[in-house]
Structure formats: structure tokens, C-alpha cells
Amino acid sequence: MATFTAIRNKKQTAGAMLGVLSYVVQDKKTILDGAWLVTGSNCVPRSSYLEMMTTKQRFKKTDGRQFYHFVQSFSEDDDLTPQEVNAIGLELAQRAFPGYEVVIATHIDTNRLHNHLVVNSVSCENGKKLHQNRDALLTHRQLNDEICVAHGLRVLEEPEKYTKKKRMKPGEYQAGLRADSWKLDLIQAINEALEYATDQESFIENMEYEGYELTRTDTRGHITFTCPNGRKCRDSSLHDETFLKENLEALFAYRQAVGFRPGSVEPDDGWMGELADNLIQLGRSMERIDDLPPLPAPPTWTDSKQRRREALKKLAIGQKLSGDQQWAQTM
Fold first, then answer.
1. DSSP states along 15-28
2. How far is CA 270 from CA 13, 240, 292, 294, in A?
3. Distance between CA 90 and CA 24 in Å, rounded?
4. Based on C-alpha coordinates, what's the Rg of the chain?
5. In whole angstroms, what is the distance from residue 42 CA to residue 70 CA?
6. Between vectors from CA 216 to CA 213 and to CA 217, what angle results, nearest 5°?
7. DSSP tally for the chain: helices H, then strands E
8. Which of 2, 101, 187, 293 stands the most exposed, by the fewest C-beta atoms within 10 Å?
9. pLDDT score at 182
């Protein structure tokens, strides 16, 4: 049983398209036994970005929407190999988007095999701009079901009738996956996004690549995650304090201070464990330096978050923490 979902990529620039392409073809997610599970329809995957941009420039359509991003996800019960999943994705791309450049990347790093399809918004054959809406998505899903049936796979039951006033919502479409642990998938998606996030903005982008939306404001004390299946979950319900809003802010502040390298594997003790250990080591190393500059006068603290920010800044420039800033060494 395979589902077909559109990913909302709010940022539509050439750079955003390159970011999505780079994300979906990562070796960690797409290489199995030395085989790269990435194929292209009307393009060569390794040069797909240049080919897509050349197409836009050739037909003078470089503005507006740059690309579309879809995910075709399979159930564990389908008993498919990654190669078969990629072949099904390629067949869908060729039939759903004829004349358009499409990269099909099969991800093998989660409990469910799934394909990412990144589609150029301009046809390489006639320069026609691709426009997608709810009706187009419904057509793609019906085609996806047709292909799955041809390969002997189960499909979701169709609703009795479609009308213009009553369409199947994304949440209803995904209801066929009730047996899947959506919360565990969310936790895994967050951890993977953190591997490549140097700051809050890149973290949000990485989550959006996998179909998740984040709702956060400076006035709210929490983050709400919206999953591809429509379910919502607060950070406090994920059973890991790492994902709390204030802890993520502290983690990103630390990464900015020390120059975090994207692609780092999550430590055994978790991201916050790494943060605590490194802050302790940094603090101790600073204690052994004799020529430290004198500490400035204690600032006036406004709130706990401001204290954390100031403490991280001090550590980054080699200063010791004062007594009321020892939180960093005991996190």
C-alpha cells in the first residue's frame, strides 16, 4: 500500500531547489550495498540541478515556482526491495510528469521505504509551466494506485464519491496508515533533521523536506509539530527534553558559537548530552589558561533564556562562568 503526498515547500527559489535536491540524494539515505538508489526521468540525477536551471533559462521562465516535491511512501507489509520501490517511483514519475525533469530518490533509513520525487516546474520539451492543485494531486494518487495494483500491492479504499464540494483531505487519505507509529517517525525525523541543522532555520527546512510543519512563536513556550498525516504533537509530548523549545534554542546557540559541522552523527548520549559534555570540557580548558582577560561587570539578567545566551557567548570567547551561570555545566 503506497501513499502519495505533496510536500509544501514555501520557499521557492533556485537555492531552495538545490537544497531539496541535495537533501533527498544524501548517501546516508540512498546507498545500499554500494548501489545508489537515485534515478532520473528526463535528467541525470548527479547533474539534475544544472539541467533544471538550464531548462528554465532556455524558455526564459526562471521566476515564480521553481519545483514540486512529492513523497511516495510504502507500507512494511508490501515486502518490496529498495530497488523495486525506486522502479515504481520512476514509473510514476514518467507517467505523471511526462516531459518534465524528475529526480527519484529512494530513502532506506526509516522503518518505511519511500521515494522523494523532485519535479522541475518547467517542461524540458516545450517549456510549459507545471501547475498543481488538489485535482491534480487526486489524479496522481489514482495513478499511483493503478501502478501499485499492477505490481500486486494493496491500495487504500476509494471513497464512495468525489465532488467539488467534498474532496478527500490529506488527513483522511493518510488514515489508512493507522498501524504505523507516527510519533516514532516524528522523533526519528527530528533527530535526522538535527544532524544537518546549524541553526533554527535550517532545522525547520529539513523538517519541511520530510513533510513536517513547525508552529512556533516567541510568545509561545512550546513548538507544535504537524505530521504529514495531519496529526499534531507538542514538543512536551515527545518524551525527550531535547526537543523542548528552550533546549533546541540552547543547542542551536551552542552550535553557532562553536561552528557545528552538518552531518555529524547523533552521540550515544543524545544531542543535549553532547552539549553538556562539550560545555564542561570547554569550561575546564578555560580554567587552565592563565592569560584570560578579566571578566566584565556582571550583566543585569532579564530572564533565564537571556542568561543562557550570555553564558554561551562567554564560553565561546573563552571566559569562565560566574556562580549564577553554572547551569551550563549541569545541563
1. HHHHHHHHHHT-HH
2. 34, 10, 32, 34
3. 15
4. 23
5. 17
6. 150
7. 11, 10
8. 293
9. 74
Q: How far is residue 46's CA from residue 102's CA, in Å, rounded to a whole number?
A: 12
pLDDT tens sequence across 146-162: 999 998 887 766 544 44
Contact 74, 80 (CB under 8 A): yes
* Beta strands in the chain, from DSSP E residues, in sequence order: 2-7, 31-32, 35-36, 38-41, 67-74, 102-107, 114-120, 213-215, 224-226, 232-234
DSSP string for residues in 168-201: --HHHHGGGGTTS-HHHHHHHHHHHHHHT-SSHH
pLDDT digits (tens, 9 = 90+) for 253-291: 777 776 777 766 666 656 666 565 555 454 444 444 444
Closest CA to 185 of 163, 207, 217, 215: 207
Residue 31: phi and psi, rounded to 5, are -105, 130
Q: What is the pTM of this model?
A: 0.58
Q: Which residues contact 97 (CB under 8 A, 6 or more apart)?
A: 41, 119, 130
Instruction: Give the per-residue pLDDT at 3.
Output: 81
CA-CA distance, 200 to 203, in Å (whole number)? Answer: 5
pLDDT of 219 above 90: no
**pLDDT reading at 195 higher than 70:** yes
Rounded to a whole number of angstroms, the distance between the first and last alpha carbons of the chain is 44
On the CB side of 23, CA atoms within 13 Å amount to: 27
Question: Residue 129 carries which DSSP code?
Answer: B
